[in-house]
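Recap quiz, item 2
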Amino acid sequence: MLPIADLIKTNCISFLKINNISDEDIEKIKFVVDINKDIDKGDMYSNFALVTSKVFNQKPIVIAINLVEYLNQQLDKNIFKKIEAVDAYVNFYLVNNFEVSKNTIIYHKDFTGKKIAYEYTDPNPMKEFHIGHLMANTIGEAVSRLGSIAGANIKRYSYQGDAGRHLAVTMWGLRFMETPWPDADSISITDKVKFLGLAYVTGNKKLAEAKEKGEESDEYKKVISEIEIMNKKIYDRSDEEVNLLYDLGREWSLQKFEELYEILGTKFDHYFFESITAPLGLEIVKENLTKSDTIFSHGDNDAIIFKGEDYGLHTRVFINAKGIPTYEAKEIGLAKMKYDLWNFDESVVITANEQNEVFKVTNKVITMLMPDIGSKMKHLSHGMMKLVGEKMSSRTGKIIAGDELVEDMMSASYEKMKDRDLTEEEKKSISCDVAVAGIKFSILKQNFRKDIVFDKEKSLSLEGDSGPYIQYAIVRINSIVKKTEGLDIVSGKDFSIEGENLNRTLWRYDHICYKAVDEFAPQYVAQYLIDLASRFNSFYSKNKIIEDEKVNKKLLDLCLKTRDILTQGLTVLGIRVVEKM
RNA sequence: GCUCUUGUAGUUCAAUGGAUAGAACUGCGGACUUCUAAGCCGUUAAUGUUGGUUCGAUUCCAACCGAGAGCACCA
């Protein structure tokens, strides 16, 4: 709770006490002190009177009027300009001489001083980095930055699946490719990675075709067997030719990911790989198996399973019939490795919600095997990225590649800037940052727990509630500031209504950030920034900061404060600010 | 079939146990000899259905209808 809301709450509770309300009743009362959505009704409001109507046995409006009288005596007039009772609500108007701090830190008890590890993005080498990964990366970056402004000591990790059956499918799929293995120097990394993605899709297609003939058909059995053999070859590195192609393909993919992280503005502290977590996970599971009170058991085909049903969860395979550890066993290894690397106080893993059930199982198992690690694991899941109603699937190739989307957005942005007086280099760099802002903001402006329907055409328009809209407000301020250089500064007249509202909106930033931190909800910050930028644009259209070659100091200060908050806000969301556009 | 998530303007999203359910896009209509029009101003339009709890439900609960995800050797 932030100072002002806290101050109001404390005084409301004093009001209850002097009215002889019992401590038990006070305990039960849950009233709200929050920002007023409608700025015309004040800066903050409380529903105190509505909630306490019963214990006072009075009409809410009577309580509200009494409370206002009391608060007017108690609260500092230098902070509270006006307190009034309207329709049983109590509204607070603040003096609003708010000073912008350069780097807002919101101290939050769940974060301050804690070591928090964030794992997100998790693309798999030899498969395309698609907009689902973009979504996870965007959310993870914003959530980790929220942790950082809340006072936590944070690390960023990505876990990349360089072992497992998906790779076997890619490697097996190679034999059906019509184009040759693209290891010529003339071929770009992008095209090389695209080739691998296509091999994966081709492999899956062949697998699906075989499956259509029936799971008992000879063809399906043959295909499954071939893929399993390939999986084993990759796992134990027993085939030189496979090793060669695999190592090269893995390298290309990682290189491509690195390029994307640079564009997106993520810097990971460490990468974990399945090829390393797999043997460790296998070892931990096998060791537990030797114990008399082992939590694992033998399933069909001698697979090693965890019977989740005993705990209201799914039963899942940890080691498959061929003795290869699955995703589940690898998660155990990963948890141990993470903890050994950096003794975190909390480990947050961000994935799509299709993995919710698996994480319930693996977190349960980790807690049983390593209680002090398991109790610190938190799974944060986001909705799926859908393409206008359809599920995206990298298996079938029904995806939008991350880099292609960024490129398309860049062209759209570049097109808008083509007549500006900027160098070619500037245009390129700006259009890239604007493109990323557009993509990231469209993800962050909504509740990430729900699915996001992605409409590429609409996203390319770069208009309305968007990242570029906010960047544009900053650019306009930069432009004004530049024009003020060398001009006389005069103390101007009072704010117009637009200026007043803009000024009153600035103060809300800290409060919004606190809520965003508290609820892992970057969308609060995103929505706020739209509100702030929109108020700035209204202000801008009705007020002249520079008039007759003279700069109105009051208005210029307001612009500078607005720019600071917009910049801080975008930074928290992991979106870059541009100087010009 | 079982489990979980979800249903708000034509579309994509907000919000909330309580003040007139907010935006954006689209449509229609404006302003501008103006510091960047990726902008500003106005306008039409929505809580799936039926019950329940409550002083008050779009929000909580139940059922139904619709959508999505998961449910043993993929991740």
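Chain A has three domains: 3-94, 116-391, 402-573.
DSSP finds 21 helices and 18 strands in chain A.
End of item.
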